[in-house]
Amino acid sequence: MVEQKTNMLIIEAERLLSVRNYKAAHANCIEVLKLSPNAHAPFYLLSILTFDHGNLDKSLELVEKAIALSQGKTGRYHAWHGRLLTNQHQRDLAVNAARAAANCPDNSAQTLDTIGVVLSRSGYHSEAIQHYKQATDLSPKNAAYWYNLGAAQQFVGDMKEAELSYTRAIEIDPTSHKAWSSLVSLTKQTKEKNYLSELKTQFDNLKRPDERLNIGHAIAKTYEDLGQVQDQMHWLEKAKKLKFEAQAYDIQNDIPLFQAAQKTLHFSYSKCNTSEAAPIFVIGLPRSGTTLVDRILSSHTDVESAGELTDFALKLKKASGTLSPYILDEETLLASQRLDLGQVGQQYLQSASKIVPNARRILDKMPLNFFCAPLILQAIPNAKIICVRRHLADSVLSNYKQLFATSFSYYNYSLNLEDTAKYCVQFDKLMAQYTSNLPSEKYTEVYYEDIVADTTKAARKLVNFCDLEWQDACASFHKNSAPVATASSAQVRQPIYKSALARWKKYEAELEPALRILKEAGIQLD
């Protein structure tokens, strides 16, 4: 009788939790624990409830209790544990949890999808695909599972399968805004084949900022493909407006971060030595050609890309012990003056090497590492840093056009055209300081335009800077089959093209407010 009652209470608690009736769900869980103190399901449900209320540490404690009581035999507990660890940026532990979940029998579609999400967010896209596929096999009418599968397939370069998965998600749920933006971004829209009618109808009925952002970007991308610049920019503004207002972003809040990065140029540290092979960091504004440089260099047999790692900033944040809510901020950068950066560098290398364990040279292409460039060279003296530059007006345009992950607040500047221009100006000023102060044998700049003009010449310079022997494969980067976890995943699998050069000139009238900001800052446009 007790077991039957507790089972019914747990089932009801899950239902109550699903509709966010937290008080009643909590009461049910406590009632179960009174009847059966060693029951594990209540701790799992209480972990979810606690997480929903913003207490991540308590949530971790509760799910770990559930895992212990279930003797580690319940897949969904491990999968949820992995998600929580991912939120805490504990990638290695999260991956271990996901794999523990995968080894449990009779996993549900939801658990399999969660395993895939943890692996994807940790950079293991190929491994994630098998779990997404199992999820869609078990629950073929769940649009979210098909979308997640499509995203992983796109990352590993399987564009045809990604398109099919996105299309399937939309067939199941015509309002799947992420699937729509991904599908339109992945495929060339034409006058004969586009989705403008469906997308505009959806947009008019949407109220949530993220939904309008995704659908509006899909409409803008369609107009871009059709060559209708004015309509494209009009829809970008409409798409971003509600999200911009909700975020209340202010460019003034970012300026102290740029100023702190400049101050790190003048910090004084004791020299630290490392015997590891020199890692390569590719930095720059997003959409400036960082992925292109990554593909050129990772086509070399001695170099393997680890993707866009947050590891250096995470290790810096942990070592600094700052209480600020952001991983990368003024307080943390300035606190680095009192740190043993050599230890931070060693911790970074240990963490990064787990992503690409057999790499002779690791390549990290997180664009935002540009804030940490001087600290990276102090922490890892033999590191090589390549800053990718692009005509600043084109950088403004490409950043404004891009649909960045809405959960990543560092790109909120792109929600407004003028703020995007102001951010790019700050970047340009900081890079000028880097060029003047950082050693040229460790830090260099390469222009996207130069790579396009003469790919082989630019590639040879990059390879030489990294102290590598030349390999012809570096000039044929589009044949590189490694995963690409960025917005450039489709473009970099094609031979070099020149259509992106001086693209801003086609948008000169629409970009006028941004161009005025660049000119006032002394930026030469021609």
From TrEMBL:
Annotated signal sequence range: none
Pfam families in alphabetical order: Sulfotransfer_3, TPR_11
Keyword Transmembrane helix: no
TPR repeats: 109-142, 143-176
Alphabetic keyword roster: TPR repeat, Transferase
PANTHER family: PROTEIN-TYROSINE SULFOTRANSFERASE, PROTEIN-TYROSINE SULFOTRANSFERASE 2
Descriptive protein name: Tetratricopeptide repeat-containing sulfotransferase family protein
UniProt organism field: Hirschia litorea
